[in-house]
Design a protein that fits this description.
This protein is of the alpha+beta class and 196 residues long. 36% of the residues lie in helices and 24% in strands. Strands 1, 2, 5, 6, 7, 8, 9 and 10 form an 8-stranded mixed β-sheet that branches. A two-stranded antiparallel sheet has the order 3-4. The longest helix has 25 residues. It starts with a helix and ends with a helix.
Length: 196
């Protein structure tokens, strides 16, 4: 009777691990191209990222031997900055550069190479930290879910993010000051802050 009980528990556990391992292997795509070439070759999903990397002069960086790890936001991840699958960035290019470099990690970091635990840090190519978390809901970078599926390129590895990461660039007032689209808000905040 105890043998049947153990076998009854063991079979689902074994099936889970077999399915998980096979699924994991199926989610890895291998490419002979660089990360930059691979991004350019998939305009349906990455035309906005491709435009952003060209505009910020980071496309050439991702074409070098590296290695790099790219946390790639697809077109839908750009949200309000996506107008008909084209980049609609109302801010200075320097802020786009900061955002794009925030998505690039030095070295080829495979899944097991990311630190585990809540809010472990890892450095970006620009020197800032991103926070990595894993739990039963998935794998997250700065609270943004990393989609399943990994692409191994000749110069690194690509993970897809559900949303664009925009690093903090000072406080809110510092960030919006000088941006025409936020001129009224900036003036209103300044009035409140400077009033006695």
């Amino acid at each position: 009777r105890s043998i049947h009980c153990c076998a009854g528990l063991l079979i689902p556990v074994v099936l889970f691990f077999v399915f998980f391992c096979c699924q994991k292997e199926a989610d890895i795509k291998k490419e002979n191209r660089t990360i930059a070439e691979w991004i350019s070759s998939d305009p349906l999903y990455f035309s906005i990222l491709d435009s952003s990397l060209h505009l910020t002069d980071l496309y050439d960086t991702l074409g070098t031997p590296g290695p790099f790890t790219l946390l790639a936001p697809d077109n839908s991840a750009f949200g309000i900055f996506n107008t008909n699958e084209k980049l609609d960035w109302p801010f200075p290019v320097s802020l786009l550069h900061n955002s794009m470099i925030y998505h690039i990690l030095p070295g080829k970091i495979e899944d097991a190479g990311f630190p585990s635990g809540p809010n472990s840090t890892i450095r970006t190519l620009g020197g800032d930290s991103v926070y990595v978390s894993r739990n039963i809901r998935g794998f997250f970078i700065n609270g943004i879910r990393v989609r399943t599926g990994v692409t191994l390129c000749s110069n690194g590895i690509v993970y897809q993010l559900e949303r664009l990461q925009i690093p903090a660039d000072g406080n809110i007032l510092q960030t919006i000051t000088g941006l025409r689209s936020f001129d009224s808000l900036s003036k209103a905040i300044n009035r409140v802050v400077s009033s006695p």
